[in-house]
Amino acid sequence: MDQSHIRNFCIIAHIDHGKSTLSDRLLERTGTLAAREMTEQVLDQMDLERERGITIKAKAVRMAYTAPDGQTYQLNLIDTPGHVDFTYEVSRALAACEGALLVVDASQGVEAQTIANLYLALDHNLAIVPVINKIDLASAQPDQVAHDLRDLLGIDEAENLYTSAKTGSGVDEVLEAIVTRVPAPSGDPQAPLRALVFDSHYDPYKGVVAYVRVVDGQLNKRTNLMFMSHHRIVEVLELGVFRPKMTPVETLSAGEVGYVATGLKDVKECRVGDTLTDVSPAAAQALPGYRPAKPMVFAGLYPVEGPDYALLRDALDKLSLNDASFTYEPESSVALGFGFRCGFLGLLHMEIVQERLEREYDLNIIATAPSVEYHVLTHDGVETRVDNPSQLPAPETIEEIREPWMRITVICPARHIGPVMELVTVRRGEYERMEYLDEQRVLLNYQIPLSELIIDFYDQLKSRTQGYASLDYVLLGYQPGELVKMDILVNELPVDALSLIVHQDIVQSRGQALTRRMKKVIPRQQFAVPIQAAVGGRIVARQTVKALRKNVLAKCYGGDITRKRKLLEKQKAGKKRMKRFGNVEIPQDAFMAVLRLDEEED
Asked: Which of 275, 352, 495, 601 has a 20 to 30 Å separation from 588 between CA atoms?
């Protein structure tokens, strides 16, 4: 198709502002899917996406739109996630587009992720089409939202489109705006082929399927291709587009979006951000690509049954094929045996990976408490990166420990400023600025350690603001802190998987909260089980799980008191022997107790 009739665009918004529903209406109006094929959130194909009502993976789809003047246009849509954990997915989608629909809920207004995603789009020089959605709701305030867009983001009120994705109202105007406001792609069809890989997935029959945006030249089915980063040559098994199912085609020309089935067996050879070109003539220079995704949260995943280790390794292999931002490496624990240290973009990402392992691969796994990556400088000048507290060097060798700090943006009703400030201050947050968006809502900026952010912060924020607050965060850098390693001992034996790195000032309160929580979840034994929190050789907190006691005097009715004493002494000696050889089974709840410490501290 002529490049002037191609439009590549994505939909960006805060969580639950109607991106996927608007995508459904666009598919309906353009006739991409018949009415009998339509379902709600048709682009959200994973069970988890449908159950949770969120988009996890960006999706691409091609639509044909006939404008009122009779001209036919090819619209390539990429539907993106809204949750802050999946911002990396959004940034990859933006690089493959020339325009973006900025969707804002008419009742909720501008939220933290609305602002963050808009700035991402502006960084990529995208044309912005503002869409005020859900105008059919009784609580909708489209005029107020239009004022907010003008005051906060500098968007002219005349540019706004008003829609209800649920009823289909205003969808025709959105399609018209895409054609008129989003520029056509600007690649050179006659130049050597350059195609940007913006996503990939693994197919057991076709190998790695690369999602590509052709920037220059033409991609043909009958040619061999080369990845420009490592010069690997691949044969094109299948070439196609998304409608939204994979549909084979013969060629993809400059400006078009589609997929290439490469036959590769390892998705690491098809890196997101790489450039595909012809073997001959090859392009002289690769496309800019992306920065690789950097995991922010780390946790250990262990099989409950030892023989399942190989199955877990295979499952993680397959998951990493579809998720370039997920990393893992083998590790072992004295308490849990052999497992893997995994890196995630955030807690939601971790939760989804764990749930997919249990559902799709039928695995029973234990996840350790999440941690972040610390930079540890020793006295001899060597800097190491530690993402597992049990690997922290001996305290006497450490010169300095640096931890990651984030800048957070919280938008909440003005009446909740007090509880939000209290929450952030308790978590070692540092105030930056406060700005009133209007009479009802306020924007707060804080700096806060990532380790305080990942443990229950989002849930606490929603709880204290009755669900009205929204949160966005970006990495600022690493700052030194007075951090120490806190070990947890169960039955006087250290459990390495429960170790924590905490700030010196909260060692006592965190240790007491964790031991109290663990006392509730560790089952009672035939002997008393002490649970201790220790920093170095100093015990800072202790709780004891009382022993189960059998009534050995039940059958003694009266008689000599010495007979009863003998039975009690025998029981006492037996309990000592049990304790010496006792093996305490630690349930999954104990490893996740750290995530619910605030309930104890409150």
From this structure: 601
